[in-house]
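Notes to self after the Tuesday call (sharing in case useful).
The group wants a holo model before anyone commits to mutagenesis around the pocket. I volunteered. Ligand is PXL. Logging inputs and output together so the record is complete.
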Amino acid sequence: MKQVLSVQDLSCVGKCSLTVALPVVSAMGCACSVLPTTLLSTHTGFPEPYRRSLTGDMDAVCDHWQKIGADFDAVSVGYLCDPEQAAAVARLLERFGGIRVIDPVMGDHGKLYRSITEAHVEAMRTLCRKGTVLLPNLTEAALLTGLPYREQPTREQCRQLLAGMEEFGAETVILTGVSRQEELGFVGSHKGEEFSFFAPKVPRQCHGTGDLFAAVVTGALVLGKTPSQAATLAARFVARVIQATKEATPFGVSFEGELPFLWQELHML
Ligand code: PXL
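Result:
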């Protein structure tokens, strides 16, 4: 069985990060190990969550894994709380192998999430240099590359963002949340070759969908699918999940009932 390690926060209420990666990766038939980087009572979309950083525990956890011979076919990195945590994850990626999927979660719609600083952005630039696959949204790609943020970039502007992100050295870059008039999708490049996918836009802002996308991409890649297949499956799954979510709230999306779709579509590829 393929072994995935998911490295991100454990937000106890409000589906995102580990609470979506675990069920999704498992539903795809892969084993999902976890390294919670911070314990939060909720994600930061709720006011004033309780939080306890686990940055100081990460190296000791990795030491133990190395002792018992644990290793992974893919490591998937999501939301990190501070620059020190990004440095600890960079050390982890030196020790454990496989495909490194990095979602540089820092903001959306042109704005940083609460508590993300310029030092954090700089630490994420360093971390991105260790990725095989980078999954920035438009906001994160603009922040990381220094290019201007645009709500609806043209094809050429997407290409410039992709080219800027490619300079971090990853094989694959997928720009997520690319908005056109009536459509939403992604634009990617794999070893310089472009691919994209767009679906009709559902006018609903749902929390945690980027984390779902990253989990599906990781599962599909570790099972040997191409980056284009993996990202298209992820986008179709997320579109269904948004459709199934009747009311967008910070508690999260209704992805559970769509897991059989994910399994079926995965096995049709
Ligand atoms: O879904 C991204 C995410 C993950 N984890 C935490 C967050 C966010 C976005 O706000 O706050 C803690």
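Two things stood out.
The chain has a mean pLDDT of 96.
The longest strand covers residues 31-42.
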